[in-house]
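Review form for a predicted model. The reviewer records the input and the model, then writes brief findings.
Reviewer: anonymous (R2)
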Amino acid sequence: MDARTLLIESFHAAIGAADARKILPPHLPQPPAGKTLVVGAGKAAAAMALAVEQHWPSAAPLTGLVITRYQHGLLTNRIKVVEAGHPVPDESGEKAAQEILRRAKALGANDLLLALLSGGGSSLLSLPVEGISMDELRATTKELLRCGAPIQDMNTVRKHLSGIQGGKLAAACRARVLALIISDVTGDDPTHIGSGPCAPDPSTYQDAQDIIARYGVKAPAPVLAHLARGAHGEIAETPKPGDRLFRRVENRIIATAQNSLQAAAAYFRAQGITPAVLGDSVTGEASEVAKVYAALVRQIRGQGEPFKPPVALISGGECTVTVRGNGRGGRCTEFLLSLALELGGMANVHALACDTDGIDGSEDNAGAVLAPDALVRAAAAGVSAKRLLANNDGYSFFETLNDLVVTGPTRTNVNDFRAILVL
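Model under review:
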């Protein structure tokens, strides 16, 4: 089997380990004495809703509404699926979030709120607090995306601008709450997944203000004013750890990046290649992370340490890209293009970097594969790898080589998947 096929099949093994339709059913509770309302948001929301429908007793009351990204919907019968904007929120998500909150408030003590949460929920479940418009929330989100802030910092700000996130969804209802969660963040903390609508929020308005200042975020005046009022105690904080309301709330992680990395490792092992899982929480600037990995590859090729070839270096996590140019692409192609330049065409080294949701940045690809001859082929086509990297244009580099990986929406999300194959 050729290296490209090995890498792509390992990626599909990783995605398969986070398939909501396979992993969710064992976590479904018994129906309550009252009714069950299913709500949710994220790139996996439609697949999760379908899994609930297919395994929920037909005689038990079940209604609901979930929000997913455009083109990520599925046909359901009892749970309504709404498509909305991601990574920048829009009015479709706002309207659906309003309906979710209204329906949650109507639940009684004998009912169940079943929340289905996954990566992308922060943008999709967008309900600006009073005094902030959707345009102002959208402008703030664009600024946070541009500055390269980690997702945890972005979500700290968003929770303090939201009427439903940061534990406020759970606080709005009297019912028991079970949140089933597919994690797309390092550390798998429910407070950061979809900005934690059912989880206690340890962060504060002051934390949000500090993040705005640290990254030089040019937020609209009403946003800055709202955060300042909160920091001065004029607005109630989000529900905190230890609040008694969370005695009736369970946040349960049902899929993680680590599980997906282990599935890919098992695949490589079955092909006679030693897997080395380097961690599910790799963060940092994508182009800089690539330099560290390139140094490890050189050590393996030159010294046979700390691993002897053939070996597959597998990692997950969520790198960032500080946008300095106007090119196309996301953190996965940025990582691979930087890796290509660092390795300089080193023989017998192949790599793949893809986002498990099937979308790298805002393009139509999940990521790309990198072959040893990539720089040579690019030069022959008149393409400068250095120039494209400086312009944050990894997409164009790999598009020219026909080395993009296109899966379409996977309807799950457990962060990025990277595999470097040293033969």
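Findings: Residues 12-255 form a domain with the Rossmann fold fold (CATH 3.40.50.10180).
Further findings: Residues 17 and 260 are 5 Å apart (CA to CA).
Recommendation: see findings above.
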